[in-house]
Backbone:
């Protein structure tokens, strides 16, 4: 929303400098994104939060400034009183509407107008806020919408067939030509107005071509409606069609403000385009749209805010915001909410009003009191394990990457993965980011390739989620740990993973997680599973009181005996074998370093000799290997 | 005889103390204590002395011998030290060291560890939850019913429901970590102090300060007497710990349907030091942490009584915080795996 300072000043006196004003407005919730000086004016660009449709108008912004500056707002004066109109003639119009789809329908007929270009002051104002002037009638309705926040539409009365306006919902598929000449197929449920033959209005979004105000228009019907936010939003979304009006309606228009907006619009039309009022005011509504009362407990206000704000200050803030507080003399303050502030519904809303005008940056800061919860919650995750593992990888020369979870179909094809079995986003930002990665390897390989021109030795890893299908019914998110290295060999990676498992107390052979490729050694393991299996508890084992017996045994293996299996076989032979390690490897010879250790007494040569014999026998039998 | 012994001692000691290296020392030792050494020969002469003189002179000879031995030993250690110092003198200590091959952790991990650690000191537990989320937790339980205009500010990525039983629009990639509020709160009674780090997704065009994938750390605290000043204090404490005490912080009113009052937190942009740059949209401030007091409708949705408990919630824009911490001017640097970037972080 753009607001020129010159325009704001018509309604409120401003003493703060534009920069200070912008800062203060941001603090109270009117995010000031930009302040620009063009010619002799200053333009504020605001980000309006969805709860404040009133701030989509200049007067709404002026009201906020008035609250900050503690000033009265000057509403535009008109020469007519909408509540007291005595038309000289009364042209016929049959309005059929329903409050469930059109809560309020306010309107009037003006005859004998002259459509022409707007006066300079009007077209200049519209240009300042980025609107293109069209003609005096359209410009006035636009201007009043930007000024007061109530969208207005002028119909060419002569072109309303049968002088019937029926508000109803589209069946779906009807063709509608808007005032700018574009055609749309209407979605089911869109609120529209039909005359006896045609659709003449797409309510809350855009007017129809066949009832628009053009050069030859002589008589107009001005409609100031209240629309149902959800209905406008749905239609606007499914058409992909947004307008200033639809933004206001979907957030909730000032339902009490339609007569004032009509009055202002009518006054300007009579002044600028001439003509005379040619009907009574139409105001079809089911309820009064009167201001409502929200109770504020002074005690609760201070309790939630954490400070004691003097009651006079609270009342004064509410007054500055035009919220007419009534002090009951007890704890309760009765606060009357004007209809343009439909964001204020409950006590907490009022607490925010007081807090934001008091100034968030004026509050003291406290640290929460109360009990520290000690019970482990559901969804708890021990991030220390992540850190531990990442640090081990780092210590071994690996650097960490974070990559996108969303990948392309091409990425999948490159790894021979069938994209049919991979979870997919329906509305991807681009084809590059369409699928949820089922493996971390894709991005690691890309990262590897990217670094190749600059680095000889590359060791990369990522710890992150993968998303498994094949369909949403089986969707499963898992943490994976994956790495790639062109520096280390299979055994070095295996040793690294073995060490990680050792630290986490996991008894598993990591070989199956490792793959040797042309680019290097790649590993990927299910880290969610690792997190489940991890045991961080450690129990101290006393150092042995008795000396170990240490010896090396060299075995010549034949055929396809696997070193790992031989080690396991040796270990199996006795419980006093503390450890077996591969010490050396030459052709078919494997030298194992064996430590025998009894925890309660000294070992005799005889004892160790017997176990050695068992080992020799076992490896001979199982692996047809002989001791060298 | 006595005089001869004392002369031997004096000459030996002076030679020893002048010795510059072990070899010289060894020669001196041989010269005095060797088989034909001066002292050895002198001791042999003792037998020629008259009987009454022998004990006295023998004692002196022993003293001379031990003095020479001790002096040799002490000089040997002096020489050893000097030689060690000389090795250092011989090498070029200005040549660079040989570094162990240690890798680098990603800046996101580094800052996340800090965040978790700081919140731990305030009694917050860290949790984890799904990225594939339902509309219910991501929006509805957070007081954002279907057709709420606030949904526009979080354009959603929907998952393909093809071949599954999911209803259209129900399964999404979470747009905000606040989705975890409902999940945790519906299963746990207050008091609650929780943070949840994680990745979020939005249909958003990528630029220097926005991404379609970004990290947040959600946090919430629910107890019997939680105040707005507690929220201000917690944010202030945490940001000072994370960014240093000099960091400038300001609060502003904002609106999210799941908080009331709503608070936004800005820090002075570290990239431009508040002067205004493309990263902070020329404002000099970076929006880092939306927050607020938990809306009564959210508390009600998880079965809490808003009259009895209150709470605050916040979402730290972790990706943005990381870039701010290291004065990086583009969020996309965080997903760039170039080692020339990664190698800068420890």
Residues:
């Amino acid at each position: 929303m753009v607001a020129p300072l010159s325009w704001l000043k018509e309604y409120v006196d401003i003493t703060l400098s534009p920069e200070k004003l912008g800062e203060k407005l941001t603090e109270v919730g009117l995010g000031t994104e930009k302040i620009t000086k063009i010619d002799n004016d200053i333009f504020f660009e605001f980000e309006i939060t969805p709860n404040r449709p009133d701030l989509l108008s200049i007067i709404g912004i002026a009201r906020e400034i008035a609250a900050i500056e503690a000033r009265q707002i000057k509403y535009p004066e008109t020469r007519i009183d909408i509540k007291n109109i005595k038309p000289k003639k009364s042209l016929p119009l049959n309005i059929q509407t329903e409050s469930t789809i059109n809560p309020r329908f306010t309107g009037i007929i003006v005859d004998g107008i002259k459509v022409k270009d707007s006066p300079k002051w009007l077209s200049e104002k519209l240009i300042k806020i980025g609107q293109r002037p069209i003609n005096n009638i359209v410009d006035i309705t636009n201007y009043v919408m930007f000024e007061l926040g109530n969208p207005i539409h002028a119909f060419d009365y002569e072109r309303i067939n049968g002088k019937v306006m029926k508000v109803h919902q589209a069946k779906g598929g009807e063709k509608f030509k808007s005032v700018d000449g574009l055609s749309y197929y209407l979605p089911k449920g869109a609120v529209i107005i039909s005359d006896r033959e045609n659709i003449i209005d797409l309510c809350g979004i855009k007017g129809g071509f066949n009832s628009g105000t053009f050069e030859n228009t002589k008589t107009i019907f001005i409609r100031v409606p209240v629309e149902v936010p959800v209905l406008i939003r749905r239609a606007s979304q499914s058409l992909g069609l947004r307008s200033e009006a639809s933004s206001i309606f979907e957030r909730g228009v000032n339902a009490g403000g339609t007569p004032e907006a009509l009055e202002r619009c009518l006054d300007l039309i009579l002044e600028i385009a001439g003509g005379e009022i040619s009907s009574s005011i139409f105001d079809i509504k089911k309820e009064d749209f009167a201001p409502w009362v929200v109770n504020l407990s002074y005690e609760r206000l201070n309790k939630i805010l954490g400070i004691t704000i003097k009651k006079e200050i609270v009342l004064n803030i509410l007054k500055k915001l035009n919220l007419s507080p009534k002090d009951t003399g007890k704890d309760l303050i009765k606060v009357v909410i004007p209809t343009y502030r439909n964001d204020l519904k409950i006590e907490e809303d009022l607490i925010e009003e007081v807090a934001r005008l008091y100034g968030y940056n004026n509050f003291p800061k406290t640290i929460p009191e109360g009990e520290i919860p000690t019970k482990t919650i559901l969804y708890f995750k021990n991030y220390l394990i992540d850190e531990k593992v990442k640090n081990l990888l780092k210590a071994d020369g690996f650097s960490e990457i974070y990559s996108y979870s969303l990948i392309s179909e091409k990425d999948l094809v490159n790894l021979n993965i069938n994209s049919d079995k991979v979870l997919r986003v329906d509305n991807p930002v681009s084809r590059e980011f369409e699928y949820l990665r089922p493996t971390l390897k894709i991005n690691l390989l890309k990262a590897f390739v990217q670094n190749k021109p600059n680095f000889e030795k590359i060791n990369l890893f990522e710890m992150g989620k993968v998303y498994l299908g094949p369909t949403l019914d089986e969707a499963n998110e898992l943490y994976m740990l994956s790495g790639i290295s062109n520096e280390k060999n299979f055994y070095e990676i295996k040793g690294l993973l073995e060490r990680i498992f050792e630290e986490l107390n996991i008894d598993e052979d990591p070989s199956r997680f490792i793959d040797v490729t042309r680019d290097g050694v790649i590993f990927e393991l299910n880290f969610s599973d690792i997190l489940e299996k991890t045991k961080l508890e450690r129990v101290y084992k006393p150092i042995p009181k008795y000396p170990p017996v240490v010896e090396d045994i060299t075995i010549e293996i034949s055929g396809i005996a696997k070193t790992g299996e031989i080690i396991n076989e040796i270990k199996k032979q006795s419980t006093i074998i503390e450890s077996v390690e591969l010490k050396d490897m030459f052709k078919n010879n494997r030298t194992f370093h064996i430590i025998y250790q009894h925890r309660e007494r000294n070992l005799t040569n005889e004892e160790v000799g017997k176990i050695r014999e068992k080992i020799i026998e076992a490896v001979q039998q199982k692996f047809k290997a002989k001791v060298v | 005889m006595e005089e001869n012994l004392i002369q031997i001692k004096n000459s030996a000691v002076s030679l020893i103390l002048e010795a510059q290296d072990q070899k010289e020392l060894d020669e001196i030792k041989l010269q005095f204590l060797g088989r034909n050494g001066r002292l050895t020969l002198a001791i042999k002469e003792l037998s020629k002395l008259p009987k009454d003189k022998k004990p006295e002179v023998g004692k002196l000879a022993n003293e001379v011998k031990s003095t020479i031995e001790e002096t040799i030993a002490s000089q040997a250690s002096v020489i050893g030290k000097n030689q060690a110092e000389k090795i250092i003198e011989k090498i070029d200590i200005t040549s660079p060291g040989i570094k162990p091959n240690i890798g680098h952790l990603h800046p996101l991990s580094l800052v996340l560890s800090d965040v978790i650690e700081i919140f731990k000191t305030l009694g917050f537990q860290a949790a984890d939850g799904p990225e594939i989320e339902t509309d219910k937790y991501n929006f509805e339980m957070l007081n954002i019913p279907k057709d709420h205009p606030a949904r526009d500010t979080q354009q959603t990525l929907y998952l393909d429901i093809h071949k599954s039983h999911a209803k259209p629009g129900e399964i999404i990639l979470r747009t905000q970590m606040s989705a975890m509020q409902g999940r945790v709160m519906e299963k746990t009674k207050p008091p609650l102090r929780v943070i949840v780090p994680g990745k979020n997704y939005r249909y958003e065009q990528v630029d220097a300060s926005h991404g379609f994938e970004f990290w947040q750390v959600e946090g919430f605290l629910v107890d019997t007497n939680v105040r707005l000043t507690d929220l201000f204090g917690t944010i202030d404490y945490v940001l000072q710990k994370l960014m240093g005490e000099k960091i400038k912080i300001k609060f502003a009113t904002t609106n999210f349907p799941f908080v009331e009052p709503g608070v936004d937190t800005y820090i002075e942009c570290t990239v431009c030091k508040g002067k205004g740059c493309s990263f902070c949209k020329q404002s000099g401030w970076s929006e880092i942490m939306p927050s607020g007091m938990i809306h009564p409708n959210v508390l009600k949705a998880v079965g809490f009584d808003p009259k009895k408990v209150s709470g605050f919630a916040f979402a730290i824009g972790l990706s943005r915080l990381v870039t701010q911490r290291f004065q990086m001017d583009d969020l996309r640097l965080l997903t760039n795996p170039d080692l020339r970037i990664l190698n800068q972080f420890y």
Summary: The radius of gyration of chain B is 40 Å. The longest helix of chain B spans residues 54-90. Residues 107-342 of chain B form a domain with the BirA Bifunctional Protein; domain 2 fold (CATH 3.30.930.10).
